[in-house]
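dumping this here so i dont lose it again. seq + smiles for flavin-adenine dinucleotide
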Amino acid sequence: MNECEFLIIGAGITGLTIARALVLRGRKNIIVVEKEEKTGIHASGKNSGVLHAGIYYTPDSLKARFCVEGNRMLSEYCRSRKLNLNRCGKVIVATDKDKLSSLYKLQEMAVKNGVNSRIINSGELKDIEPYAYTYKEAIFSPDTSVFNPKEILDSIYNELIDSGHVKILFNTGFVNPSSDNTVLTSSGHIKYGRLINASGAFSDKIAHSFGTAENYKILPFLGTYSRIREENSGFVRGNVYPVPDDRTPFLGVHFTRAHDGTVYIGPTAIPAIGRESYDFVSNISLESLTILYRDCVMFLSNTAFRENAVSEARKYLSSFLYDEAKKMIPSLEKDQVIHSNKVGIRPQLVDWPKKELVMDFFVIEKGNTLHILNAVSPAFSSSMAFAKYVADEYLC
Ligand SMILES: Cc1cc2nc3c(=O)[nH]c(=O)nc-3n(C[C@H](O)[C@H](O)[C@H](O)COP(=O)(O)OP(=O)(O)OC[C@H]3O[C@@H](n4cnc5c(N)ncnc54)[C@H](O)[C@@H]3O)c2cc1C
């Protein structure tokens, strides 16, 4: 039987950065189990690759705290390891007059969070993003960058292996808790001192199996993308975002020039029918019925959820997505936008008795087990600061 001091479930960015934080604090004998054959198969490898600056999040939330610090830490990590980081900045535009007051509120929040951002007029916007439209004013965030998620995951993976203190067991899925600080995995039993559940889309289920967080359930949201044809990609230099609906944790359909130069439009946030159903037909299980039922209950009991579900589902149709996109880049023609295979799933936590989406990251401890719930966007940007907090507050 394998034995370790720390057992981490999930080799996404959350699990890997927590393992790294432990190694940096001199901890040894760490095992990470990952059910897939490599890292980055799910959210950590299927995201927009935007290093957020921390504008959107309620001051004092974990998201605000760790996104601002995480931006600095991940930027420094990329710089020191010579990893791809495009410091292209980002603009948030008001697509009509009504959005202007929300834009100002967003900037107030950014200031409270200690983010380096400022209000610019439409003339200044033209210098940064010549094709973007805003009603009078916009926000400019110079510290928003674009990274290559897989490159960062690989770099941290290699660092952990080189340390000699971390074993990463791929194709090894957590099955259930066994007796006496031991879990059963698909590769046999593992005994642990502390267990950290960083399993993303399955984190609620695994927490429930340890008898905790029973009121919290994950609902998966499908994030689909379109892209601008390569020959027209000059419409966007960096990141062009709308003012989001602050009743949901989603940022609205936006333009991002990825690390390889592709300009993506998206992601949507459409209720999905499986934790790993990257389209509407694969990975459907009995659980899909439960997810569908929960979506219906949320649809009926939560207005913001209902409005979001309807407007996001419409964006699955390219004409609606194009209409949203054209509000930000008016010169964009319909035939310049094409389908992209890029797709991701956001496992969003719901406080089930309240029927509310949980807006912040959420950590819950039970005995010697620790459960990281709701590590949704901007969890990649925040990962190093979040991992430092988890290690210092709970593990070391
Ligand atoms: C479409 C989309 C766009 C996004 N854009 C951004 C962005 O621009 N910037 C940003 O900062 N964030 C973004 N995010 C959010 C970010 O990608 C995630 O918050 C982050 O990657 C979560 O990392 P994680 O390690 O917690 O989860 P994951 O990457 O999902 O990793 C969890 C791992 O646990 C494994 N696992 C699950 N169950 C088990 C089990 N039983 N046994 C063993 N292993 C298990 C899974 O296989 C998986 O590899 C985006 C997310 C999506 C979906």
